[in-house]
Amino acid sequence: MPSHPTAEVSSARLADVRRRLDELRAHDLPTHGGRTLAYVYDSGLADVDALGREALGMFASTNGLDPTAFPSLLRMENDLVAWAARLLDGPESVGAVTSGGTESVLLAVLAARDARPDVDRPQMVLPTTAHAAFHKAAHYFGVEPVLVDVDPRTYRADPAATEAALTDRTVLVVASAPSYAHGVVDPVPELAALASEAGIRCHVDACIGGWALPYLTAVDRASVPAWTFAVPGVSSISVDLHKYAYTPKGVSLLLHRTPELRRPQYFSSAAWPGYTMLNSTMQSTKSGGPLAAAWAVTTAIGESGYAVLARQARSGAVALAAAVGLEWDRGVEHLRVVVEPDSTLVAVECDDTCDVFTVADEMLARGWFVQPQMAFRSMPATLHLTVSAATEPSVEDFVRDLVDSVRASVLAGPVHVDPGLAEAAATLDPAGLDDAAFDGLLQLAGLVGPDGPALPERMAPVNALLDAAPPPVREALLIAFLDRLQRPSP
Ligand SMILES: *Cc1c(COP(=O)(O)O)cnc(C)c1O
């Protein structure tokens, strides 16, 4: 008998791969412990995290492509949507689980566009603080973004300016609850009323606040305007579960007020000889893992658990904002919170003795990740702080290290950008640059080391240079950088 080779893998080899995974992971930001104040969300509930990972593994190979083949996935999706519908005051609403906030936003824009085939060159009206995912949707789907400046004092959308921006080509008005960059809720009742009068859709992007704000209702929400389906004219809402529902990554919800509003989100194709493709979201084959993990984590934490977690995150954010201070002459010297937070996010600016980019580097050196945000229109550069439940117990430590970081940053002085380089960045036309020119620019910007593209030890010089450049130049430089990073090493 000829012996067939088998693909069996030895246990030594398996162990070696595990070791290498650990090595790779060691250079990432920590996802737990509450010291990473962007990108990740930590409930502090280790046993629930373990359950989420178990569910992720159990369902990793199931395929959401066909809910009749995997009825478990349909059931869990409907359960999650039903929960969100209750939270968002939309008893008649329907929805779908997507891979993340961006996919939810993309689909909301797509549905708004496709609901209006009569409109030739569709537009959507966005407050300047709307998430970049709407610009991605604009780019993908050919819906022109019409940007409306927010109120410079409150950082909230301006209803009068929004009204003035509506045309007979507008298919969508967008509001945030809250905005990612500054953490405030737009005046949804006014914006939704405008949309409703114009006979168009209004999407509320509650990707980051949708699973936290509703749990703060009783205690803490007096000043926050209504933003759920309870507001007439709100047609869809996005809520990320992989943010404040503390589930593993890859889960968001998009809800529409009625099945009819959801209809243009579906796609089906029988125009080939294989299975009829039938999708409610952008992915076709999709792992059931993230959905099952979200179902497991949310079910385990439960309504009462989320009420506690939301209050923890909120009290962390409030304590942090109070410590930094809303005025220059209060709290941490040289810093202030740009606007009183409505939810669990805080944005902090520096006076001209230092800069937020250096403060971010100093904080990283002290074991905290805070996210620098560039200046945009009249809005200053800031540090973004997403406060998780697990950060709340460490707010005092955070503030102590922040004071130290600011002291070090003031000593160093605001990061110096070579005036020639700043001038070049400010006037560059990225469309006119070839690959060699980008290579040169990346080198000048400090994004290329001796072994090719690499992040420098300190990011402040790079960030300050980008900050001095207009947004299209920032975009082009960063794309050139990523393009070079994403090349397999020889
Ligand atoms: C995070 C976020 C998004 C995008 O979500 P991803 O999950 O990162 O794709 C959209 N809008 C808001 C307000 C967000 O906070």
Task: Describe this protein's structure.
- The protein is α/β, with parallel strands linked by helices.
- The protein has 3 domains: 54-297, Aspartate Aminotransferase, domain 2 (3-Layer(aba) Sandwich), CATH 3.40.640.10; 303-412, Aspartate Aminotransferase, domain 1; 419-485, no CATH class.
- 41% of the residues lie in helices and 13% in strands.
- It has 16 helices and 15 strands.
- A 7-stranded mixed sheet has the order 1-7-6-5-4-2-3, sandwiched between helices. Strands 10-11-13-12 form a 4-stranded antiparallel sheet.
- α2 packs antiparallel against α10.
- The model has no long low-confidence stretch (mean pLDDT 95).
- The structure holds pyridoxal-5'-phosphate.
- Pyridoxal-5'-phosphate (PLP) is lined by residues 100-102, 105, 131, 133, 176, 180, 205, 207-208, 240, 252.
- Pyridoxal-5'-phosphate binds at residues 100-102, 105, 131, 133, 176, 180, 205, 207-208, 240, 252.
